[in-house]
């Protein structure tokens, strides 16, 4: 596997650990290279035409723009290409057919922050489609907030679940005085030689004892809201 990236390693919008783990697993990275064209024979891809890139001025993300170096084109033999370019919602149909307002730059659905509704009454948007690329937990939380907003729109009170009764007794003293600070446990990860050619889980989480120990970090700030 070979990853081509048109900027530098430090510009990659991926978690540092994930890049390091990929390198440790033997995946090659070539920086300052951009794909130009997939070349095929009899309907099968055989090579990727690429060009080398030159770093230029900084853009509004704080990263340097890149431009193609004239005459630097080369062909790389490949048997499969996995494009991993920026993604955006396919919102064109909603804009054209439903007149829903779409962010011109990110193509996300524009929603009213309070009602979570688009400009078209009764049409709501949640998750990555309205926030842009985020984490699964953001999308789940957003889905809950929008479900509540839909309920209010339909005449309900927006309360779709009751808070769980707390099993942890409230403390009357400031626990921070009693909490020891220490680094979190390192997770057990599958050895590199056992990772290739399978879909085995690499990050194995914590043991029961480690979980119990980590959970003792809780400062009882009482801000958790758990669905019933
Ligand atoms: C490569 C990658 C890695 C990621 N890694 C992580 C990670 O490690 N941890 C993490 O927390 N998050 C990760 N995320 C982000 C996370 O996947 C998203 O934030 C989350 O899935 C967004 O949820 P969503 O419900 O908004 O959208 P999605 O999960 O995209 O769900 C949208 C659904 O709508 C369906 N759909 C689309 N169009 C239509 C249509 N016209 N009609 C009917 N159905 C339609 C789609 O098929 C899809 O099932 C990653 C994302 C990517 C792309």
Tally of strands: 6
CATH architecture of the largest domain: 3-Layer(bba) Sandwich
Spell out which ligands are present: flavin-adenine dinucleotide
Mean pLDDT across residues: 87
- By oligomeric state, this entry counts as single chain
Count of distinct structural domains: 3
Gap from first CA to last CA: 45 Å
State the CATH class of the largest domain: Alpha Beta
CATH topology of the largest domain: FAD/NAD(P)-binding domain
Using the alpha-carbon principal axes, give the shape.
extended
- SSE-based structural type: alpha+beta
Percent of residues in beta strands? 15-25%
- Order of secondary-structure elements: EHEEEEEHHHH
Descriptive report:
With 228 residues, this protein is α+β, with helices and mostly antiparallel strands. The protein folds into 3 domains: 2-77, FAD/NAD(P)-binding domain; 92-153, no CATH class; 162-228, no CATH class. It has 5 helices and 6 strands. The strands form 2 sheets. Strands 3, 4, 5 and 6 form a 4-stranded antiparallel beta sheet that branches. Strands 1-2 form a two-stranded parallel sheet. The protein is extended, with a radius of gyration of 24 Å. The model has no long low-confidence stretch (mean pLDDT 87). Bound molecules: flavin-adenine dinucleotide. Residues 127-129, 134-137, 139 line the site of flavin-adenine dinucleotide (FAD).
